[in-house]
Amino acid sequence: MFRDNSLAEFGWQATTPSRFWKCTLKESAWTRALIRLLAVFLLLTPTHTWAETLTFEVTIRDGSTVSPPVLRARKGDSIVIVWSTDVPLVIHIHPYQIEQEMTPDKPARMDLLASISGRFPVEAHFASRAPGHKVVAYLEVLPP
Amino acid sequence: VKLNCLAHMAGTVLTGSILLAVLLTPTGVFGHGIGERYDLPVPLSLWLTGGGAAIAASFVVASVVLKSKEARTTTGDASAALRMMVVNPSLSRALQVATFLLTLLVVIAGLIGDQTPTHNIAPVMVWVIWWVGMAYLSALVGDIWSIINPWPFVFTGFENFAKQFHLRLHPRRYPDRLGAWPAVILFGAFSWIELVYDSRAEPSRLATLMVGYSIMTWVGMMLFGREPWLACADPFAVAFRTFAQFAPIEVRHECELARSIAWRGGMTDQRGVQCAAMADSKVAYGSVILFRPYGSGLIGSKAISPSMLVFISLLLSTVTFDGFLATPVWNALEGYLFRMLSEFPESRVTIITTAGLIAFWMGFLGLYLAFAEWMSRAAQGALSFSAAARLFVIALVPIAIGYNIAHYFTYLLTEGQLVLKLASDPFGFGWNLFGTARYHPNYELVGGRFTWYVAVFAIVIGHVFAVYIAHKIALREIADRDKALRSQVPMLLLMIGYTMLSLWIIAQPVTQFNGG
After folding, report:
1. CB B272 within 8 A of CB B260
2. Which of A90, B34, B63, B489 can bridge B201 by disulfide, Cβ–Cβ 3.0-4.6 Å?
């Protein structure tokens, strides 16, 4: 099948006449490095996926989480966050204009559509105590 | 002299006491909104592509510069200017009046308006529009700040007013040995406020700091004259001018005296001496605008004074430290130190961040000086340590500009939109002057993916400029081409390291310190 051994070795489309490659692409260390970089880039760049509905559960103890979890979604996904807390809190996600109060007796459910890409701190403000806020989670919405 | 002395004492005491009062009063409410970045970390693939491109470009640029025939010509002088036009004095006057009124509005809003940072126009105007926006403008367009700066404009008003009563100010000669040290100290203080001080977004604090800054600036101008103060002591004039060295438009003021003191550490400019003689009388400070290729201002720069070297190291390290503060690595370190410093429960975050800021700066400067020593050795006698240190720090400026663009791109686009909302209600009194008071910023003006490309592209392009500029300077200063090339090996390594640090930071998830 292979007409040109050097190309077969390299792993390129062997059915293409070798002359074509030799004319248009001067094979050198530079071009090889560039092509490899491009390949890595294309392989690792996420491609389009279908919108999903993702559910996350976050538990807050004494107004904070031990290490804030990262809630990762893709733009267009529907997100459900189920919160449970042992102190009354107000949870904010500023760019999404979300502000929701919650109390220890019933778990709060937060529904949102991942419409803005970015990494957003989800902040808890104490309903009763002094002002100030803590980051209880990060919402990461990756571009489509 | 008596008037000067009194003014000096009064000014120092007043400024000092205001600043102390401002900084020591316990803070009240601290809101947020200003100062949050919502950038996604750059993905691994882009990080690798950017890093690879930067390293590859380094060698390509280096070989291109070395092969080029006319490598020894300097650009950036008036002779290299593409076109020349004179700024219309009435236009610059109108701009100064506008910025003066805007500054006044910001101070008044800060003092009497709503104290929630996002309900008051002061924080967004100072931290987003002015500080970030002006840095962008300076680097990409030119030293616009030197044209629209309202403080010297008001000072000229004072002078003219005093003349009505036959009062004339007799500024003393700015001491050469002071160099740009006052600007170093003041910019250090400003960086502390920007990066450490936790009430930086509080409108009344900002307004008080601006009043303190105004008094200090005017007293300084009274003592040493307007231009020397702006050139050597005013931290913002010096910072924006440093960024603007990269820009394609050169704003040149008629009197270059002061500038040469800060930049070269001494009055070497004959034109400067002539200006000094006339400074008191009727010199009209006309500005001239010259066009030049990007980066040529940096190539044209001669060896800078030690104080300017320290200033630039401070400027560049704070730009990077701003991003480093939001990385998980810093968070882990901060958490560790936080637990260690349990004897200071109230102030430990301030202590840690302050120490980090100083350590980062000292580390940056120390590393640069070590590389300057290495460059000097690599050049085999053709370049002294002092010359190496004072010549090449300028070449790092484009890397800092690239990083600054990457760091603030979406921040400027999104938080900057708050101005649209606050223009209708600058004091937070519930007004709706232009019908935009209910405007909610669009957080996706550009897509997340576009932001990544801009960030990586800006950093890589900054790196390419830096390598090009450093090689051009080396070829100009070192007659022996072989030695010039050898001197650039350490410099290239330093620049690659600096660029990799920038790329690494933008690939880290933005993390806030939660305590503990």
Report:
1. yes
2. B34
Cβ-contact B192, B320 below 8 angstroms: no
Q: How far is residue B416's CA from residue B408's CA, in Å, rounded to a whole number?
A: 11
Residues in chain A: 144
Predicted ipTM?
Answer: 0.83
**Partners of residue B509 in chain A, C-beta under 8 Å:** 70, 119, 138, 140
Q: Which helix (H) or strand (E) holds A59?
A: strand A53-60
Name the residue in chain B with its Cα closest to that of A44.
Answer: B45
- Region of B435 on the Ramachandran plot (φ > 0 left; ψ -120 to 50 alpha; else beta): left
Read off the pLDDT of residues B312-332 as tens digits, 9 standing for 90 and up. Answer: 999 999 999 999 999 999 999
Rg (CA), chain A: 25
Measured CA to CA, the distance from residue B486 to residue B303 in angstroms comes to 19
Q: How far is CA A84 from CA A71, A91, A101, B87, B240, in A?
A: 16, 11, 12, 63, 49
3-state SS assignment for residue B88: coil
Q: Which of B512, B188, B375 lies closest to A123 in space, CA to CA?
A: B512
Instruction: Please check whether residue A118 is in contact with residue B414, taking contact to mean a CB–CB distance below 8 angstroms.
Output: no
CB crowding B370-380: b at 16 or more within 10 Å, else e: ebbebbbebbe
Higher pLDDT, B472 or A45: B472
Instruction: Report which secondary-structure segment, H or E, holds B300.
Output: helix B296-300
pTM over 0.90: no
Q: B395 with B491: CB under 8 angstroms?
A: yes
B193 membership: H or E segment, kind and range = helix B181-195
Which residue out of A119, A126, A129, A136 would a mutagenesis test of the B interface target, given it has the greatest number of B Cβ atoms within 10 Å?
A119
Treating both helix axes as pointing N-terminal to C-terminal, what angle do B270-278 and B257-264 enclose, rounded to 10 degrees? 130
Residue of A nearest to B442 (CA): A95
CA–CA dist B119, B316 (Å, integer): 32
